[in-house]
Each structure stands twice: as C-alpha cells, then as structure tokens.
C-alpha cells in the first residue's frame, strides 16, 4: 500500500482518489476551496455507485480517502504527491513551490496535466527531476489508460517507479519517450474536435449529427481496432490514397468561431444550461452515468 496525497479535489482529483482507493491505497486530498473539500465524500460515494461498487464495499473504499485542511497536514501523511489543480501554469507553479517547501527532495511528484508541457510545469522547481507527467483519463476509476511522460529534467527512475505502481494497480500504462503538449490521447482527441468544429462552421451538419456519427461508427470501431492497426488492416496504400485526397481539405484552424459564438453569448455548455447543445436540468448527471456505464460496457481485453 502506498499513501498518496492529491492536491486538488475537483473533477480529476476526486476521480483519481477513487481509482487509487479501488487499488487498495490510502489517499489524502487537499483543496484550497473549502466548498470543494466539503463535497468530497458525497462525490466519491456517487462515483463508486456509478461504477456499480457493491454496497458493502462503498464504506471500505471511502474510509481509505480522507481530507486534509492544509497542505502541511497532507504532506505529513503521504509517500507520493499528485498535483491535480487547474490547467494554468501560474497556478501549478504556485502549488509546486509551496509543496517543495514542505517535502523531502526524494518524494515523487506526479502532475496530472493533460495539455501543458511538463518541462514548463517543472520550470521553477527546486528538484525538477522528481516531477513526472501522469495523465489519468476521466473518469479515472473507469478508464484503464494512464499516460506517463518525463519532462526535460525528469530522472527516469521516477518515471519507472510511476509506471510500476500504475501497472500494479492494473492500469493500462503507456510511457511516452519525451515531453509533448497534450500527451498522445488529447492530441488525437482535439484534432478530431477541431475537424468537428470545422464541419459546423462549413454548414455541413448540426452538432447532434456529429455525435451520432461518432457514437454509431468510429466510437464502436476504435474500441476494438486502433487507427494504426486499421491502417495496416485496410492497407497502407489505401490509407495513403485516402489521405492524398482528403488531407488538403481538413481543418488546420487555430481560431474557432463555432465555439466563440456561443461563448460570447454566455453559453458555456453543461454548466450554463446550453452550449453547442441544450442541457436541461438533470442532463449532466444522465450523461455522467451514461459515460461511466458505456465505457465499462465497451471495455475489452487488449
């Protein structure tokens, strides 16, 4: 059993705590926002229920996760610290600076950044060699994949230790050769999102149609056969012919009017009741439940 400290108890922080508790570890969570910390237990129980945890095990799992009122309290009780604060460099730098004042130089620190350069995250650290990019996917207690990457100054011993721990939890661990913004998954995901927005801006279809196409075709295929395997399966000659024909017409946009228009009107998505789609009351919880159950239903042995 490893004792993990998580800084940030929001969407990813509480989800990572659940995933670690499922693997038998002890977790201490700290968040600077008292409201977020006060709702931690409730959100953890809801997450466990959504992934069909037997009722008799819910109490055992939640007992492994405790809250810390201060950062100083957290660091006294852990072996590894996970940073899961918002994706802003200034926030991460402030948190890591405060953390390094309180922990020994040999304590591993994992950053759950999903889009930032880990080298930039580690820029002002006293001991950047201990920082490892460990990107969990939402929801972390359901999705098996964890992406692990070094920064420019990371000691690869810490990368190997992270991979070994995650493998021991039964996660599907992939190790990147070097630091890159977005790791692998988000680069693939947002290339697709960019093209989807391009289709909207070109008047090809509406947002619901894009989701229907994804959920009833590519979403089904990619859960069984990845794009590299599929390229070989259909033939690299055909793959090249398709790209020669299609690639010149794909989006290379760096501005996104399809997002800017609803945002300028105050429509941020689920949180505001509407965005690209309408979000009536209760829809957010229904989507969260559908996401969890759909992922678990589609999980297959590699």
TrEMBL record:
This is 3-hydroxyacyl-CoA dehydrogenase NAD-binding domain-containing protein. Gene3D superfamilies: N-(1-d-carboxylethyl)-l-norvaline Dehydrogenase, domain 2, NAD(P)-binding Rossmann-like Domain. Residues 5-179 form the 3-hydroxyacyl-CoA dehydrogenase NAD binding domain. PROSITE patterns: 3HCDH. Keywords: Oxidoreductase. Residues 182-278 form the 3-hydroxyacyl-CoA dehydrogenase C-terminal domain. Belongs to the 3-hydroxyacyl-CoA dehydrogenase family. It comes from the Bacteria. Pathway: Lipid metabolism; butanoate metabolism. InterPro entries: 3-OHacyl-CoA_DH (IPR022694), 3-OHacyl-CoA_DH_CS (IPR006180), 3-OHacyl-CoA_DH_NAD-bd (IPR006176), 3HC_DH_C (IPR006108), 6-PGluconate_DH-like_C_sf (IPR008927), 6PGD_dom2 (IPR013328), NAD(P)-bd_dom_sf (IPR036291). Pfam families: 3HCDH (PF00725), 3HCDH_N (PF02737).
């Amino acid at each position: 059993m490893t004792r993990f400290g998580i800084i940030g108890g929001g969407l990813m922080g509480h989800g990572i705590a659940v995933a670690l508790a499922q693997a038998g570890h002890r977790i201490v969570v700290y968040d600077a926002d008292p409201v977020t910390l006060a709702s931690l237990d409730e959100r953890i129980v809801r997450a466990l229920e959504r992934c069909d945890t037997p009722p008799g095990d819910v109490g055992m799992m939640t007992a492994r996760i405790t809250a810390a009122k201060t950062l100083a309290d957290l660091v006294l009780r852990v072996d590894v610290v996970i940073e899961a604060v918002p994706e802003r460099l200034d926030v991460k730098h402030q948190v890591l600076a405060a953390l390094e004042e309180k922990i020994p130089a040999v304590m591993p620190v994992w950053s759950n950044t999903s889009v930032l350069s880990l080298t930039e995250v580690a820029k002002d650290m006293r001991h950047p060699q201990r920082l490892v990019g460990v990107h969990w996917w939402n929801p972390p207690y359901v999705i098996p994949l964890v992406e692990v990457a070094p920064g420019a100054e990371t000691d690869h011993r810490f990368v190997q230790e992270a991979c070994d721990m995650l493998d021991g939890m039964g996660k599907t661990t992939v190790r990147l050769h070097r630091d890159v913004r977005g790791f692998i998954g988000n680069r693939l995901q947002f290339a697709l999102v960019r093209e989807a927005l391009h289709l909207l801006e070109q008047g090809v279809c509406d947002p619901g149609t894009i989701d229907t196409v994804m959920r009833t075709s590519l979403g089904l295929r990619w859960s069984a056969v990845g794009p590299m395997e599929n390229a070989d399966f259909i033939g690299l000659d055909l793959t090249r012919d398709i790209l020669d024909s299609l690639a010149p017409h794909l989006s290379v946009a760096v501005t996104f009017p399809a997002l800017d228009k609803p945002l300028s009107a105050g429509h941020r998505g689920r949180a505001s009741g509407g965005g690209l789609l309408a979000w009536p009351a209760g829809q957010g919880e229904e989507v969260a439940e559908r996401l969890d159950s759909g992922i678990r239903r589609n999980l297959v042995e590699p």
